[in-house]
Amino acid sequence: MNEFIRGIKKGFPICLGYIPVSFTFGLIAVKMGFNPLEATIISLTNMASAGQFAGIRLIEGGAPYIELIITTFVINVRYFLMSLSLSQKVASDLPFYKRAIMAFCITDEVFALAAMEKEDVSFPFFGGLMATPIFGWTLGTCLGAVASGLLPPMLQGCFGIALYCMFIAIIIPPARTGRKVAIAVIVSALLSCIFKYVPGVNILSKSGGGGWSIIISAVVAAAICASIKELKRFRKRKATEGGVHV
Question: The pTM is what?
Answer without folding.
Answer: 0.70
